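debug: dumping io for the single-chain case to check the tokenizer round-trip. Nothing else runs in this session.
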Amino acid sequence: MQERNTLQKQIVQQKLAELGDHPTADEVAARVQEEYPTISRATVYRVLNKLADSGEAMRVRINNGADHFDHQNFPHYHVHCSICGKVADVEMPIEEMEKFLQDTSGYRILGYTLQFDGICPKCQKNQSKQ
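debug: decoded output
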């Protein structure tokens, strides 16, 4: 059964793309409710989860933290700031590693998640001022 393209879904997709910086569901909900206060937080969460489940958006699972969402749904990787929680894209060729894993393990790789943790430039600057 094909998923309906509801007005709420369109609004959530638009706000996710506008934010563009890997927001949490709370951040998307806050942005949606600024303009559309009748759309509930629960609806935003439900739409984001459906978008991630269908592959229309990417869920970025953060170890010991809230999931973030990415409007870019092509395979790519992320780095997470351990201080401020910011998530950013990482451009990195990983196809060679995937081939190496397949060749050495005999497994056919179906998918993977890769998250780097570190301290973003802004937080590094703030630390150096202290």
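debug: round-trip ok. The CA atoms of residues 3 and 54 lie 9 Å apart.
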